Amino acid sequence: MHSIFKHLRTCAFVSLSCLSQQASAIYIDINFSGTLSNSQKALFTKAEQFWENTLTGYQPSVNANALSNIVINAEGKAIDNDGGILGSAGPTYIWTTGGYTLTAEGDMEFDTADLSNLESNGSLESVILHEMAHVLGLGTLWQLNDVYIAGSGQYTGANALSLWQTEFGQTNDTFIPIELGGGPGTAGGHWNEVNNGGALTGITDTNNNDLRYELMTGWLNSPTFTSNMTIASFADIGYEVAYSEVPIPAAAYLFLSALTGLGYIKRKQR
Questions:
Q1: How far apart are CA 211 and CA 209, in angstroms?
Q2: Planar angle of CA 33, 76, 4, nearest 5 degrees
Q3: What pLDDT, on a 0 to 100 scale, did the predictor assign at position 83?
Q4: Does residue 23 belong to any structural domain of this protein?
Q5: CA–CA dist 26, 107 (Å, integer)
Q6: Residue 5: inside a domain
């Protein structure tokens, strides 16, 4: 999540439709290395299963038969001392196909000095869900999919914008406000949250959940939820998605910052 902050930085199911309209599936393969306990690996697997069941395929223009599984390399490694940088995550290889830029492979690294604390206070699963979303493209691949202009603070993807208007009642808005605060790693890759996560935003969904608690703001506050707006943003960047009838809870109370930094991403053409 944040590049040099006190928390996290990011370098930033089933069936799907492809050109032939044949059924296929999206799968995430996690390769573990470094120092990760079995219980910590299990939380990565739970996050993988959540996103596999939420991202049900690719948009029809995508030649899904030409794509392989999404690979995420997850590692526990020494980064700095306790409470400094917790980790980093983002796509490292991308596909260009059907008018979209999609993740082919990404990395998630977590500081071994912080892993036990995150796990014991119950926040590690939420941190993984948040960071895995960045690996899959939320925030990190917005610009390459033409739904966000760097520095503009204006997300324009049609699917998420529609949910911003209906789910959060912002019927007069022509864009979703994007976080411009928090410094490099937070700005430009999250839904906007006022007061650095320190107060309610006053923007609530149809179930009266304040945006402050949404999973993909720059700060995570407990109890968090995953909105259909967040899910819809994946439809804007090339996935088919399964919407939830109720907000999806995710336990978290750790302040997080997020991503950007696409300089080292390599492109795979399909």
A1: 6
A2: 135
A3: 65
A4: no
A5: 18
A6: no
Residue span of the structural domain in which 181 resides: 28-269
Q: Which of 178, 174, 176 is nearest to 140 (CA)?
A: 178
Cα separation, 73 vs 131, whole angstroms? 12
Residue of 112, 110, 147, 156 lying closest to 256 (CA atoms) = 110
Whether the per-residue pLDDT at 197 is higher than 70: the answer is yes
Q: What is d(CA 118, CA 58) in angstroms, rounded to the nearest whole number?
A: 33
Q: Report residue 124: phi and psi, to 5°.
A: -65, -40
The number of domains in the chain is: 1
pLDDT at 131 over 50: yes
Please give the model's pTM, rounded to 2 decimal places.
Answer: 0.83
Which residue from 213, 32, 39, 47 is spatially nearest to 127, judged by alpha carbons?
47
Give the model's confidence band at 246: pLDDT under 50 very low, under 70 low, under 90 confident, else very high. Answer: low
Tokens of 257: 């910052």
Residue 258 dihedral angles phi and psi, to the nearest 5°: -135, -105
Between helix 228-236 and helix 158-166 the angle, nearest 10°, is 160
C-beta of residue 72 within 8 angstroms of C-beta of residue 132: yes
**φ, ψ of residue 28 in degrees (nearest 5):** -110, 125
Give the CA count within 13 Å in the CB-facing half-sphere of 10.
36
Let me know: does 109 contact 31? Beta carbons within 8 Å. Answer: no
- Tokens at 127, concatenated: 């941190």
Q: If you average pLDDT over every residue of the chain, what do you get?
A: 82
What are the C-alpha distances in Å from 121 to residues 82, 105, 112, 130, 254? 14, 29, 15, 16, 9
Beta bridge mates, 159: none
Q: Is residue 22 part of a domain?
A: no
| Per-residue pLDDT, 264 | 43
Q: Please give the single-letter amino acid code of residue 181.
A: G
Q: Would you say residue 258 lies in a domain?
A: yes
